[in-house]
Specification:
The protein contains four helices and five strands; from the N terminus they run H-E-E-E-H-E-H-E-H. Strand 2 and strand 3 form a beta hairpin. The chain has a single domain, classed as Nucleotidyltransferase, domain 5. With 127 residues, the protein is α/β, with parallel strands linked by helices. Helix 2 packs parallel to helix 3.
Amino acid sequence: MIAIVLFFCSVVFAQVQQGQIIAVAAIGKTEKAQVSQRAARTPYYLIFDEHGKLTEVIPNPFYDVSRGAGPKVASFLAGKNVSAVIAGGFGHKITTALDEEGITYYEATGMVKKAVQEFIRQNPSKR
C-alpha cells in the first residue's frame, strides 16, 4: 500500500514539474507554417513543450462546427494540459473560456516556430 502511495505522489509531482505546454493555432502542420489569425477556428494546433520542441500536431476537431467553437476548443486544450495558446487573434468567447480553464493566451503573427521562441523568451518556464 505504501509503495502505491509513493508511486502516486511521484507521478503527481512529476506532472507538476513538467513545465508549460504551448498550443499554437496554425494554418499548416509544420513549424514553418504561419500562425492562424483565428484561435478557435484554426485548421491545426501545434503542441510544443517548454523548450520549444514540437511534440504533437492536432487537427482542430472544432474547425467547422456551426456554433460554440471557442468554449469547445478551450475545453479540448485543457484536456491536453495546455497552459498557453498562441494565435493571431482571439474572440470574446474563446478568451472567456480560456480564462475559465486557467489557460493564458498570447497574440502573435508570422511563422509558428518564431512565435514559440519569442513566447518562451518572454515567458521562461519556472523550474
